[in-house]
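Dear colleague,

Following up on Tuesday's group meeting, I ran the structure prediction for the two-component complex that the binding team flagged. I've pasted the input sequences exactly as they went in, so you can double-check that nothing got truncated or mislabelled along the way. The structure tokens for the whole assembly follow below. Feel free to forward this to whoever is handling the docking comparison.

Inputs:
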Amino acid sequence: MNKRVELLNKVLHCVACYLDRETQSLHRLSALEDDYGLDSTEMVCIAVDLEKALGLSLKGIAFGSLKTPDNIVEAIIRLHPQLLAEPQRAAALA
Amino acid sequence: MKQQAVITGIGVVLPGVMSLEALWQTQLQAATAIRPLSSRLHGSRIDEADLGELLPSRLAKKLDAFTRYALIASEFALNDARVELDTLDKTRSGVFVGNAFGGWRFTENELRHLHNDGPRAVSPFQATSWFPAAPQGQITIHYGFKGHSKTLMADRASGLHSVAAAAQQIEKGGLDLAIAGGCESTNTDFVRTALENFGSDDGDAALYAPLSTSASRFAVSEGAVFLVLENATRAQQRGAYVYANVDGFAIATKPCAADRYQHDSATMMRAMSKALNGAYPDVVMPDACGVADADAVEALAIAEIAGRAAIALPKVKFGHGYGMEGALDIAYACLMLQKQQRLPTQIDTPLASLKTLRHSKTVNAAELDRILINGCASGGSCSSLLLSKGKTKS
């Protein structure tokens, strides 16, 4: 599976778990605040859940300013570009 | 012109009790909800399974138990009052909460997370869940109320203070409607530990029997009781049922050690007299601390001020509810005034100083016009609130 899609699925899964919803009911371009009613404190909870799921620190990402699941994926990739690299390349970057 | 504040709705969440009918029934049965909570403390506790899905799980997990209880009891109270929220001026609607302990259940969990897994594992909702004003914030947000609101912390008298503060705002025309009452979550390690010393005076006793010559051990309860208070004119115009008028409230204080209750019965007498303002109560509902010297002081005051009244101690079935206790006594008083029935005293061997008061082992039909409710706070404060029978009926 495309690594970006894999990351998006993990993000959607974390958001869905927080919302007590099915992952399939969420869309990558949906508005976190307007469509799902998530506030900035809830986004901190999701950030911590994501850190656990990914095994990575997400310190430095301003989760409160991210609008969609896609935005979260972009922000994580900017902070951890090795996530999109092939396994050998990722090991070298890590 | 001073307005009349009236009570038009009641909502309760107590151990094994989620309705007014169940609340009344607890006083007709021999059983109590009191069980051992630890090796040194007795009391009653809410089974969270009883709350079912009354709150959305996403909201519930952000809140401490005392706020969950408060939100549910508030909704029950508004439903009981048949308030149509769309017709309310939200800027003239407020929320008043009495609380003593705050949200220790949530806090204890997060302290464990902090200790075991570090600061990133602590819920960000810790900040908004623990503090005693959390229920006030959540209720006002939920209903969009923007009028004067307050959380009052006065130990066991918190619930009386909360209802009195709401009534005062209505009387002076600052609010049309208020949700007022109290809530506690005492089923936590921290609160239990804090109360174990307090409750160990008569550790061999099996019963919570305050104001009694029987061996008694202190017992604690938890839950939430909220009332809907309205301007009497507004209540009458919309055809609301009026349980009771809030007729008087007074506080008297003579400072004593911060961890002690009033040792001078004259202070309690002063509060009761001021609240009565010349009227005479048919029933007195004591604070009933459950600690011998505090009970003796209150008994002397009751005998002096209301020696011909009846006495009712419904809290014996649950234990003392601290911040919610005043509101719970008010709820029982409202039901007594509505049914025109006097609840049993609930203690078999009252203190000798209470011998002139009327005691009963059963529910009795009675002409009830006024009920006086006491509450005490450590440090020497005594409070008293007077209710009278509602004059407007649908």
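The mean pLDDT of chain A is 90.

Cheers,
M.
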